[in-house]
Amino acid sequence: MSEWFISSICFKKRTTYYLVLSLAINIPLTIYASDNMNRENILKADFDTNFLVGNAQKIDIGRFKYGNPILPGEYSLDVYINGQWLGKRKFVFKSTRSNENAKTCFTPNMLLEYGVKPEILHHEVSSTFTCNDLDKWVNDAFYQFDTSRLRLDISIPQVALQKNAQGYVDPRLWDRGINAAFFAYNASAYRIVNNNHETNHAFMGTNVGLNLYDWQLRHTGQWKWQDHNEIQEKVSSYTSNNTYAQKAFPTLNSVVTLGDYFTNNNFFDALPYRGINISSDDRMLPNSMLGYAPQIRGYAKTNAKVEVRQQGNLIYQTTVTPGSFEINDLYPTGFSGELQVSIYETNGEIQKFSIPYASVIEMLRPKMS
């Protein structure tokens, strides 16, 4: 009887051990950019290999002391910057020591893409491909890797990030396209015979273009041909409508045009001109800056959440630090109406106020031209 009882206890201990080990293995590991954070903040779990039976005792389970280990390799991950989804990116994780979790590194190019201010980076950016630990580039920055969801959460202090409008895309990520040339045409011809009088007509409109590096060359024209049998006359002529070259300057949100072109017809009829023109191009602006929307200014007493509603619908939400704040990247909200602004303080206080507004066609936002 006692022999059976001892066997039963041993069996229960082994079963309990395997259950704990299994739970530990299936918990996704959170990896931090700093080794100190990785070792001090995560509780250490030791497993007694004496509970393993047979060849299982030869298994090295040292990697599981701090959770589920990250194995070296390339991962395709969903990247989140301060909780905002950035997109899918590929990361290579490497292990420096046999019992260490594999880690990844970051280049200045990557951090600039994430919105980090260039002046925040600690090291001299002599090479945009220099790869280093995240916290060595930016103070207090770290990342967390959720292995079960293949998700990489990167935390960067707000002071280190550029404040961009909603929908902003860094011009360095724009693609100007490839060098190419094209020729398009529209041609027609017809013949008229009347009382032994024959007339032939032909027409062709042309649209020619050349993209070379940052320049775009365009030309449009038309060719006409007539043959009057009665007067034995043939007439052929070519008319150039316009010929111009353009180059975009994303840093100025502007386009330079040289040659024969037309003025815009937003308010008046278009007029042809020959010369040089520098004009803004709204297509370079973020979506939230197209069209008119009022600016919202307020004051927060504490770290607060700000909500903007229109007709009861939430259209904007952000968090602000104590002090004055300004919201200037609302999406266009129509030609007139009223916005309800609510400021939720951390001490429980709520401030509310309304902003009536009205706009007309082509009305510009403040500080825009």
Automatic annotation (TrEMBL):
InterPro entries: Fimb_usher, PapC_N, PapC_N_sf. It is a multi-pass membrane protein. Belongs to the fimbrial export usher family. This is PapC N-terminal domain-containing protein. Its main location: membrane. One of its GO terms (cellular component) is cell outer membrane. One of its GO terms (molecular function) is fimbrial usher porin activity. The chain crosses the membrane at residues 16-34. The keyword Glycoprotein does not apply. It is found in: Cell outer membrane.
